[in-house]
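DM from R.C. (forwarded with permission)

"hey, sorry to bug you on a friday — could you get me a structure for this? deadline for the figure draft is monday and I only need the backbone to look sensible"
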Amino acid sequence: MTRETKHLTAGYATDSLGEEERREMLRAALDDQALFDTLVEEQGLRELLQDPAARQEVLAALEEPTGWERVRAWFERPATLLDLGAVATLVLMALAGYALLAIRPTPSSRTLRASRSRHCLASGSSPPRPICASTACTPP
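My reply, with the result:
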């Protein structure tokens, strides 16, 4: 079916064809079985759209926004954009804080001994003696 034939068929169903176009299409349907079958299928729609109440209902359904249009409109609201920006900022700050805590070095035994020695020297007492697992250990 050509593009013009589809256009004429849609015009036939919506009853928007001129008298000459309608006659031309009906003549063509006599020679083309596929076009004739399409017109028979479109006849039910044509009869439905001839009722003004049904036509208004169909037009109202076509003008109603789809789900995607409603979602897109929700995202376009300035308040939504601000809320999403605030949430994204909080998530990034939480991730950065977690990363900083994960990177922080754990104190090694050498660092602990050095900090204890400094503390003991500052307070005037002697540094603590290491506890040995064996009895043969002698303090320095």
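R.C.: lifesaver. The radius of gyration is 42 Å.
me: no worries. Residues 10 and 42 are 8 Å apart (CA to CA).
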